[in-house]
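Repro:
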Amino acid sequence: MTLFRMGVTERKAREKAALRQEILAAARELFAKHGYESVSMRKIAEKIEYSPTTIYLHFHDKSELLLEICNETFLLLSKKLAKVIAAEGDPVDLLKRGLRIYVDFGVNHPNHYRTTFMTPHRHYPEPESCQNVNYGTGGQAFQYLVDAVGRVMASGPTHQTDVMAVSNALWMTVHGITSLLITHDEKIMFGDKSGLVDITIQAAVKGLLR
């Protein structure tokens, strides 16, 4: 009887986790397509063919859903960037690899990226925005970039001394590339897109650090 109860409990836990992920996937898609402010909890419920009450059993409100999506995005991105940070090699090459990983992540996870980095949340309190997600997720992802830039600066002569300024400038560069590829990919007809990404990253790193 005890084993039976454990089996039922584990199954219910798996089903709950699966439904939670289904809700998050629906919210990501709708936020990315229609914008955060235009999507209601009811619309999310309709998307997965459940009642709104079911959604509220998993998430208190829409802002909690948004924060969970942001956390998920940053955790996925951090996991990929951590491998580069832990690698051995030339600091400049590792920085370029990290920036390229960032772009590829956004292109491969467009709904994550749109919701986290491209959706305005102006009419909601600041703590509810992705930019204020806790340090353990968003802050850690950015810290990988800061650390990589710091290693480049420490490895040889550079005309820059402000690590944070350079890190922000590089992030703005790759964010611009990623946003363009996500929203206007079909209009970028000139040249090889992958090659253009590499050229842009190389030019930005060289211009800022070498």
